[in-house]
Amino acid sequence: CCVTVTALDAIVVARSGYESSMNYRSVMILGKGHELAGEDVAHAIDAVIDGLIPTRSHEVRPSTAKELAATMFIEIRLDEMSMKVRTGPPDEPDEDHELPIWGGVLPVHLSFGEPIADEWANQKSMPLPASIEHLKNKGA
Length: 140
Known about the structure:
- The mean pLDDT is about 90.
- Strand 1 and strand 2 form a beta hairpin.
- This protein has three helices and four strands.
- Strands 3-2-1-4 form a four-stranded antiparallel β-sheet, with no helix packed on it.
- The protein has one domain (about 1-110): Roll (Pnp Oxidase, Chain A).
- By secondary structure, the chain is an alpha+beta fold.
- About 20% of the residues lie in helices and about 30% in strands.
């Protein structure tokens, strides 16, 4: 089993298209995978929920049997791992530095905006749950 994940940190803006790039962090994991079953699936769902929004699994209803049956998680035993990181400005030839073209790094940021309630039930009068309030304030 092979899993890869890449996080984009910045766009590297060079004075040529060839030298333009991105700053990133990337990992590739190799290992033997097996499907989780039973209560392990419910625990995995909670881990994913809490990974996105810490403590949210304690605020939502439990997964139904139908939802659990429709969800598959693969646990991977880590046999090998490779990580690659690219940081810094454009890596371009010295003569390009004399060109009247802007070069540099454009950072990429991920932040939370103002929560928008859905249209159902009495959402307008319902306070934000603690987990959402925490993330909202973190992004401010």
